[in-house]
Amino acid sequence: MEHSDPPRRLVFIATEDWFFASHFLPMARAAVAMGLDVTVVARVRDHAEVIRAAGVRVVPLEAERSSLNPMAAGYAAGQLAAILKALKPDIVHCIALRAILVGGTAAAIAGIPSRVFAVTGLGLIGAREDRVGRAGRLALRALIRGPLATRRTRFLFENPDDAIALGLDPSDRTVTVVGGAGIDPAAYAPRPLPPQPPLRVAVVSRMLWSKGIDVAVAAVRSARQRGAPVELSLYGAPDAGNRRVIPEATLRGWDGKGIAWHGPTRDVAGIWASHHAACLPSRGGEGLPRSLLEAASCGRACLTTDVPGCRALVRDGAEGLIVPPGDADALAAALVRLAADPAMVARMGAAARARIEAGGFTEAAVTDATCRLWRDLLEG
Fold first, then answer.
1. Residue 287 gets which letter from DSSP?
2. Is residue 2 part of a domain?
3. Do 54 and 164 belong to one domain?
4. Stretch 263-282: mean pLDDT, rounded?
5. Is residue 193 part of a domain?
């Protein structure tokens, strides 16, 4: 009697279950469809059942993602190494910097050479241009290309700038650059623009200082003072686990005179149906923001900043307008331009949708590229 080979095993290491569920479920489903035995190891709160419904095992790992304490990271790596020794994966796929540092260490301890380091943005280390930021990037480069890497380590980036910042050539065979986590263009389909004026702009994001929420507020106030009919809607929750969280009292204090904070939402497509343009004035550290992917797929013009990730999707004057990070005056001028030209708003929105469909930013394009990477490791 013939015996079929047991399925190959893939373990995702993520910081939080909600982050995996919101961004990477299509990738997990693709792995299951490949016939892989898939496990997600993450801090578990409210999304384990959603992940399990995709045919994926969930193993909890308690590790505070906001902690920079090396002792805490070392303890988490030890716990994770024990989990990996029990699971015996063929590939360990680490998502985001902390998971790369902890997961790479654990994979080394457990003796698993096939590793995928998926960099979903460089965070504060990537955003800072001072000595601390440069030193942080050098240290990170030394770690993930040194003791944490093997000849069977592959690097997955959401924009080419992050690869270059870590001393890697985006065209190297060990490097794959994808369009973020990808977007389902059918789920985020264009709908007719609402009447204009006013120009209705939305920020859909975690409410963090690093996302430039305060810059958007200041820019809208300035544009309105110049006579432009602009309204700003803020959708998203303060992320208590992030050191750059904006206090709820501050968000409530911004309400009024054309600005409203609505809290979190589950109907992102519905938001874009009632708005003309997306705004994400990030200060940097992005991979490729899902907020911009969703808005572009819905056929909405995008206002964003000249930082890695944001500029990988949006081209100035084509899919939207790009301004320097932290520059409320420049963002206000961009808002005034869009408020005065509804035809430009519509043209940029159509270009944004076309870029999603043709530029490798769909879920299908991202999962195909990732599956090729896994096959390369499994067949190697």
1. S
2. no
3. yes
4. 97
5. no
Nearest to 306 by CA among 212, 202, 214, 231: 212
- For 180, the token pair is 């973020």
**Residue for token pair 């009024």:** 256
Dump strand ranges (E) for the chain: 9-16, 37-43, 57-60, 91-95, 115-119, 153-157, 175-177, 199-204, 230-235, 259-263, 277-280, 301-305, 320-323
Predicted TM-score of the model (pTM) = 0.93
Would you mind telling me the total number of residues written for the chain in this entry? 380
CA distance 322 to 314: 8
Question: What residues form DSSP beta bridges with 57?
Answer: 39
- In this structure, the answer to whether residues 172 and 257 fall within a common structural domain is no
Nearest of 68, 81, 105, 84 to residue 10 by alpha carbon:
84
Question: Residue 371: in which H helix or E strand, if any?
Answer: helix 363-379
- Which pLDDT belongs to residue 69? 57
User: Could you identify the residue written with the tokens 């060990």?
Assistant: 174
> Could you tell me the CA-to-CA distances from 110 to 59, 79, 99, 268 in Å, in that order?
17, 11, 15, 41
Q: Tell me, what amino acid is at 319?
A: E
Residue 60 has pLDDT above 90, yes or no: yes
Query: Does residue 367 share a domain with residue 259?
Result: no
Element (H, E) at 139: helix 131-144
73/203: higher pLDDT: 203
